[in-house]
Amino acid sequence: MRKPGEPIYLRRHMAGLLLAIVLPLIALQAYQLYVGPISLEVQLLVGAIASAAGGLILYFAFRSSARNQP
């Protein structure tokens, strides 16, 4: 049994976290490969926005499952 305050790491939580971290990087590399070069500032901005959006999506998607754990 979990201790109070102990984090819950379900397999789907870890898969979602991995996607939220890796997907912005893959998208930027694919854009550079198929469309053309972009500046470092734009890469950082897009990566930060995509990562923040992914984090919010993960938070809202998985908070209910975290609350329902015994």
Question: Stretches where pLDDT falls below 50 for ≥5 residues?
Answer: none
- What does the oligomeric state look like here? single chain
Tell me the strand percentage band: under 5%
Radius of gyration, rounded? 16 Å
- What's the number of helices? 2
The SSE string, one letter per element, is HH
Largest pleated sheet: none
Helix-residue proportion: over 70%
Task: Report the average pLDDT across residues.
Answer: 79
Distance between the termini: 8 Å
What is the 3D shape? elongated
The helix/strand class is mainly alpha
| Number of E strands | 0
Indicate the topology:
Elements: H1 11-34, H2 40-67
Write up this protein:
The chain is mainly α and 70 residues long. It has a domain at 36-70. It contains two helices and no strands. It has helices at 11-34, 40-67. 1% of the residues are buried.
Descriptive tags:
70 residues, mainly alpha, 2 helices, 74% helix, elongated
In short:
This protein is mostly helical. Helix content is 74%, strand content 0%. The chain has a domain at 36-70.
